[in-house]
Design brief:
The structure holds 2 protein chains of 2 kinds. By secondary structure, chain A is an alpha+beta fold. Chain A contains 12 helices and 14 strands. In chain A, the strands form 4 sheets. A 5-stranded antiparallel sheet of chain A has the order 4-5-10-6-7. In chain A, strand 2, helix 2 and strand 3 form a beta-alpha-beta unit. The chains are: A alpha+beta, B alpha+beta. Chains A and B meet through helix 12 of A and helix 3 and helix 19 of B.
């Protein structure tokens, strides 16, 4: 096939219809910041492109009950600027501000990051730390809700079927006392606009009256093939007071665990240094008023 | 009183600014010719081996393919793409296509087809089998192998070996500089169009049209007069487009098929299959006395030229010459060895070895200062050359060498004394300051022929047409020449026309845009030629206006009789009158030989903040001070320095071409090869020392290459100062910094 068929569904019904008869040359197009590069790289010169951006109602950030719902067409730029996101899940806004460059932020959307399951995907650790879910539409028009953590199987692979598309991201309500944060350090010696060398997302519930951490969710990205919770670090924080001492302990533990994961791979050891710094910085930022 | 300059020293926009900012400028990749075909290269997937079988049948049978080429059906004439003029002795080891592949990225085949897409698909159908051979990746290993060690050189003055024994302190370093990609925005591309008579026109963004003509002729085995080379607008070069790489290949493909052929590389191909800054390993021993005076120095540079010789020898020579032009050192020995490795090919890269050797010697200078417990700026002040010093190795005289002024000016502007002596703060983030000095030349005088032929003609409207083989690389060469003409004649810059550079139209130039020669040599030639043209205006003016030449005044495109101010002729009117009345024209053609090769100098100052957890470096302040003689175009000079600092920072902090154990390049894309982006750049402050250099146009000398030279050692010295460590491997990647810092805190360094 030497031509592209371009379909622009306007509604979820039309999207479901488009998802029928999909094959290996059917591609779902959002912002296109990853897809177009992939198509060029693989020399794909024909196929079906289903452009999600025409589907009405998927460009909203809203509350559904107490859950935060982010439409598939919400760009990173919109995420970064949303007062609702800043209020309910600050780490998402922090992440959206450092994804690629401004041009990428203006075009890219969360589902692309999830569907690509890239090791360096900035959104994945944040969504995992928030226990985020993907709302998925299939070709029969049925909708399911799948935790992001379960959706991502391995680097570059998800459990998404060819006739499925992510239409929304759902973030369950966080406790009122929750604080969130995100940090990223890029590849190489540069400080800006780089692929992630290491990312860290942190969601911490802290009882203010007792000044004690009740629960912690810490997810590390770009280190292992798939983002993962550092359960040791989460346990370390539970029932502890947020202090400078704890900040140091956390940073050291995160570094030690990354070193263990990398098993002495020399080329990647700087990731352990980066995680130490991220642990220190993100924790410090979350508890800026306490430390 | 000095005459007030009207156009020199001003910031005048580049001549093609309108086309560039509106996107209407055509680069070679934008061009189309009737019947044009597209080529795609096939590059070697292994770093060393011999081709044992090639099957091109499937590719040849692919619809739309017009030709498939390998070593089997192309000329097997060895050449060296570095050779820029006939008679220069070079080792010839390149061919259009390789049977014996020497690096990951070596050219093994090309497909020519009706479209780029067809060529790409067909290229994937070529089946090549290789017999793999052992790879040599490390230059120190290569030095032990007779077949890899290809050149040695020594330059010396005095007796360094003896004198160094008398030193109070001797500091010794082994310092590595990386293989670096030029990273021009425009990748390499070429369009060649052969006619039925076998004449080939080559359109290329190049630095030396006559070199392209020479190499195409050599590689194809056809006469020079069959080849016309037209330089296209260039989207950055930095030395990377200095050697003809695609030109002989594209010319041959077109010659074979008798149709125009376009070949444009993608980014990965551009990284792999063009040229790089040569990797070096420098060893230096410096002896100093108690007061901090340099006693003697012994330098050895190991030059990794990669898989082909290209300019390995010239780089080794060029580095050595710089070593004798910065400090007063009567006893010094410089040695260099050049080796082949199975890695990407070395070539010209902004500074031509100067950034490498200065990284080695300037980091070593700070080491010496630490050993003496002395401020490194003070150590330099005690030893830097002074105006009109001689080169003790016998090279061209240094000219009006104003490096001491640069250092003193930088010291004040940067507030060096306060910053250097500030107590170090405890904590995770450490601040430090560093500086470095550098020297660079102005052309080839003293080493190779350095001349340019120009023609100038005044037309009937008072416009000057200046023909010369100028190769504007995007940094304003043409406008610089136009400013010189405008200043001498007092006409608007817009009334000077510089035609495109073309072997059929442009008079011969011996070296093109190389060796920091353009402003000093070509600009000097333009000033001389336009002064001759002005002399002709005077001669003909006196005859037409019936007065003595000394009674004539010139200004704003006119000349008049001082005793009869109403008797005036515009330059255009005079030209027309000379043509009608005397059957002559007002024009000049001349060949200008460069009269010297003074040294340009620079001193850079930088303040950094280093995150001791991650090894990330933040640039807090940057000041570049340059001894430039006279800035012809202030904006261009500042732009050159800003861009050069960006390149130098990459060498210091993040740019490095790396290879796996089989020699496969592991950073052949921008997501893995890191250049500093605009948001990473500090504000670069620029200061100039303008003190007039004899022979330079209006006193000007070079800036394009020198400006990148002090950057990397200044940054490394600042990091070393911040953390009290001694980094010796560039770039200072975060992990290298953390490792050095950890070693120190464990009592290592």
């Amino acid at each position: 096939m030497n031509e592209f068929i371009f379909e622009v569904p306007q509604s979820l019904e039309e999207l479901a219809a488009c998802l029928r008869n999909t094959d290996s040359n059917t591609f779902i197009l959002g912002g296109g910041t990853d897809l177009i590069i992939q198509l060029r790289k693989k020399g794909v010169s024909g196929g079906r492109l289903i452009d999600m951006t025409g589907v009405r109602g998927l460009d909203e950030i809203k509350l559904e009950g107490e859950q935060l719902v982010i439409g598939a067409n919400v760009t990173y730029r919109a995420l970064a600027r949303s007062p609702l996101i800043r209020d309910k899940a600050l780490c998402l806004a922090q992440m959206a501000r450092v994804v690629g460059a401004r041009q990428i932020q203006n075009m890219a959307r969360l589902p692309g990051n999830i569907a690509n399951a890239s090791k360096a995907g900035d959104a994945i650790p944040v969504l995992m730390s928030l226990n985020g879910l993907a709302r998925i539409l299939d070709s029969r028009g049925e909708i399911s809700l799948v935790p992001i953590q379960e959706l991502i199987k391995e680097m570059g692979k998800t459990s998404l079927k060819p006739d499925e598309a992510i239409i929304e991201i759902v973030i369950p309500k966080l406790p009122d006392c929750a604080r969130t944060g995100f940090g990223k350090i890029g590849h190489g010696g540069r400080n800006e606009l780089t692929l992630a060398n290491a990312t860290l997302a942190m969601v911490i519930s802290c009882n203010r009256e007792e000044n004690r951490i009740e629960e912690a969710s810490i997810v590390i990205g770009a280190v292992a093939p798939v983002a993962y919770h550092d359960r040791d670090a989460e346990r370390l924080l539970c029932h502890r007071e947020p202090t400078a001492q704890l900040q140091e302990e956390l940073a050291e533990l995160l570094q030690k665990n990354v070193e263990a994961i990398l098993q002495g791979k020399r080329a990647s050891l700087h990731k352990a240094n980066d995680i130490k710094a991220l642990g220190f910085d993100v924790f410090g930022n979350i508890f800026w008023d306490v430390l | 009183m000095e005459k007030k300059l009207k156009y020199i020293g001003k910031s005048i926009p580049i001549h093609d600014i309108h086309e560039k900012v509106t996107g209407s400028m055509q680069y070679v990749g934008d061009m189309t010719l009737h019947g044009m075909l597209h080529a795609k290269l096939v590059l070697s997937p292994i770093a060393h081996g011999r081709i044992t079988a090639v099957n091109t049948a499937k590719a040849e049978a692919y619809p739309g393919v017009l030709g498939v080429f390998t070593y089997k059906n192309t000329p097997n004439i060895p050449y060296n793409s570095h050779k820029w003029m006939e008679g220069i002795e070079v080792l010839k080891d390149e061919r259009l296509f390789s049977e014996h592949v020497r690096f990951f990225g070596d050219r093994v085949a090309a497909v020519v087809a009706e479209s780029k897409e067809i060529a790409e698909r067909a290229a994937g159908l070529i089946e090549i089998e290789y017999q793999e051979l052992p790879v040599v990746l490390e230059p120190e290993e290569a030095l032990q192998l007779k077949e890899n060690h290809i050149y040695s050189k020594e330059i010396k003055c005095g007796d360094a070996e003896q004198k160094i024994q008398e030193a109070f302190v001797t500091v010794e370093d082994r310092i590595e500089t990386p293989k670096i990609y030029h990273a021009a925005m425009e990748t390499h591309g070429c369009l060649a169009a052969a006619d039925v008579a076998g004449n080939i026109t080559v359109y290329t963004p190049c630095q030396v049209i006559f070199q392209v003509q020479l190499i195409v002729a050599e590689a194809l085995g056809i006469p020079l007069n069959k080849i016309r080379v037209i330089k296209t607008t260039i989207g950055g070069s930095f030395g990377g487009k200095g050697q003809p790489i695609l030109e002989p290949v594209t010319a041959f493909l077109s010659y074979a098929l008798k149709r125009p052929v376009m070949l444009v590389l993608d980014r990965t191909e551009d990284i792999l299959a063009t040229r790089t800054r040569t990797r070096t390993i420098g060893r230096v021993r410096t002896g100093v006395d108690k007061e901090g005076r340099l006693v003697a120095r012994d330098i050895h540079m190991l030059v990794d030229t990669g898989a082909y010789m290209t300019n390995g020898e010239a780089i080794a020579m060029a580095m050595g010459k710089k070593a004798f032009k910065l400090y007063r050192l009567g006893d010094q020995r410089y040695r260099a060895d050049v080796v082949y490795t199975n890695t990407l090919v070395g070539g010209a890269c902004r500074g031509y070895g100067s950034p490498q050797i200065h990284a080695v010697t300037e980091i070593n200078m700070d080491h010496a200062a630490r050993a003496l417990g002395m401020d490194p700026l003070q150590l330099r002040l005690k030893n830097l050359v002074q105006p009109y010093d001689k080169d003790p190795s016998g090279g061209p005289a240094l000219g009006n060498a104003r490096i001491l002024d640069c250092v003193e000016k930088g010291r004040r502007m940067f507030d060096w004394d306060r910053k250097y002596n500030a107590p170090k703060e405890a904590g995770r983030y450490k601040k430090g300051v560093g500086m470095a000095c550098a020297a660079h030349g102005n052309g080839y005088f003293g080493a190779y022929p350095d001349f340019i032929t120009l023609s100038l003609r005044m037309d009937e409207e008072g416009t000057v047409i200046l023909k010369g083989a100028f190769h504007d690389l995007g940094c304003g060469t043409n406008t610089t020449m136009m400013q010189i003409v405008a200043e001498v004649l007092d006409i608007p810059v817009s009334q000077v026309v510089v035609p495109d550079t073309d072997t059929l139209i442009s008079p011969y130039d011996s070296a093109g845009t190389q060796a920091s020669r353009v402003t000093f040599v070509c600009g000097g030639a333009v000033q001389r030629a336009v002064e001759q043209l002005k002399g002709k205006l005077g001669y003909w003016g006196s005859r037409c206006m019936d007065c003595k030449e000394e009674d004539l005044a010139f200004g704003e495109g006119e000349l008049w009789n001082l005793h009869q101010p109403d008797s005036r002729l515009s330059y255009g009117q005079l030209t027309a009158r000379v043509q009608r009345k005397y059957s002559d024209e007002i024009s000049v053609a001349m060949t200008y030989q460069s009269p010297g090769n003074p040294t340009s100098y620079g001193a850079h100052f930088v303040e950094v903040e280093v995150d001791s957890y991650t090894g990330r470096v933040k640039l807090l302040d940057y000041l570049a001070v340059h001894d430039i003689g006279k800035a012809i175009n202030l904006g261009f000079v500042e732009g050159q320095i800003q861009g050069a600092v960006q390149m130098g920072l990459g060498m210091a902090l993040c740019e490095e071409l790396t290879f796996d154990s089989k020699g496969r390049a592991s950073s052949a894309r921008f997501s893995r090869y890191h250049v500093l982006n605009a948001p990473d750049m500090p504000e670069v402050r620029v200061a100039l020392v303008e003190d007039y250099e004899e022979f330079g146009p209006f006193g000007a000398k070079s800036i394009g290459e020198i400006a990148t030279v002090p950057t990397a050692p200044a940054v490394i010295n600042a990091i070393n100062n911040a953390l009290d460590i001694h980094l010796t491997v560039l770039p200072a990647l975060p992990e290298r910094i953390v490792e050095a810092y950890k070693s120190k805190t464990k009592g290592g360094v």
